[in-house]
Specification:
Oligomer: single chain
Radius of gyration: 21 Å
Structural class: alpha/beta
Order of helices and strands: HHHHHEEHEHEHEEEHHEHEHEE
Number of domains: 2
Distance between the termini: 66 Å
CATH class of the largest domain: Alpha Beta
CATH topology of the largest domain: Rossmann fold
Bound molecules: S-adenosylmethionine
Strand content: 15-25%
Largest sheet: 7 strands, mixed
Length: 280
């Protein structure tokens, strides 16, 4: 088959699987042929060896995310390695990075922690933006720590980002001014799309029976440690329970932010920064 015929065949195969079948068919063919998309347009009458490509299309037909097939995901202006066992970074998390970057700049913060590093997306962007910033990034699972290491090496950020296997910030002993996290926050019984539930790691998605359990634990831990700032992503329906919770716990201020679809997507908490001796 020629390149044009191959793309038409794949587009048909993918029409019920993804929103942009032509686009994904082209991207996957470019990946299989180790060329860019312009090549496909320029040489659309050329015969192509598509044995590998058929396998990729079959995987995509079974709802495997494009990013796992090609082993890469875009975040901001960087390409990050990903594989099954690591969450594919989402565009909405770029909002969290921007908000944290504003605080770091305004408050002249030099030392932060990230809970749940995943592919390393958040820590890598912040380290790139602030070359003097030191980050301890934790994860409870081995695959994210392995993949984050690859990405940190790729962007030469070893000097700035230290990885630690840890539940939340339990193993972080150094002094920290701000904690950022995009933790798992989905309720255990929430029904997710096939490409997410069948391929992405449960540890990255589900936050407990209600969903906000880990978020609440993070709030408590950060307050207890006397850390001044906490920035987290959350679910669109978690504003009320989080607000009620922080009113009980006591914080200096909380501000919620929305994503581009105008849905509640996260919060920034400022604590008074005093170490809390009482049991929360
Ligand atoms: C939603 S993913 C976020 C990944 C990445 N930060 C991003 O935004 O793309 C959540 C991450 O938290 C990790 N995680 C889950 N429970 C944890 C815990 N108790 N302590 C530390 N990390 C945890 C998961 O393994 C997963 O990598």
């Amino acid at each position: 088959m020629t390149i044009r015929e191959t793309i038409n065949w794949a587009k048909e195969e993918l029409k019920d699987v993804c929103e942009r079948p032509q686009y994904e068919a082209e991207l996957l063919l470019a990946y299989a042929l180790k060329k860019d998309r312009t090549y496909l347009i320029m040489y659309d009458n050329t015969e192509a060896d598509i044995e590998e490509y058929r396998k990729y299309i079959q995987r995509r037909k079974e709802y495997e995310p494009y990013e796992y097939i090609v082993g890469e995901a875009s975040f901001y202006d960087v390409e990050l390695c990903v594989e099954q066992g690591v969450l594919i970074p989402r565009p909405e998390t770029e909002i969290l990075v921007d908000l944290v970057a504003n605080i770091i700049e305004k408050e002249k913060i030099t030392s932060i922690a990230e809970i749940g590093v995943g592919s390393g997306a958040i820590s890598i962007m912040l380290a790139k933006k602030f070359p003097s910033l030191k980050i301890v990034a934790t994860d409870i699972c081995d695959t994210p720590l392995k993949v984050a290491k690859l990405n940190i090496d790729k962007y030469n950020l070893n000097r700035q980002i230290e990885l630690k296997k840890s539940n939340l910030i339990d193993e972080v002993s150094r002094s920290i001014e701000l904690v950022v996290s995009n933790p798992p926050y989905i309720a255990d019984d929430f029904v997710l799309e096939s490409n997410v539930i069948e391929y992405e790691p449960k540890e990255a998605l589900f936050g407990g029976r209600i969903g906000d359990e880990l978020l609440k634990q993070i709030i408590l831990d950060v307050k207890k440690r006397g850390i001044k700032w906490l920035a987290c992503e959350m679910g669109y329906d978690q504003r009320e329970p989080i607000l009620t919770f922080v009113n009980e716990v006591g914080v200096q201020s909380i501000e919620f932010y929305k994503d581009l679809a105008k849905l509640d997507r996260g919060f920034i908490i400022q604590f008074n920064g005093e170490i809390d001796e009482k049991k929360l």
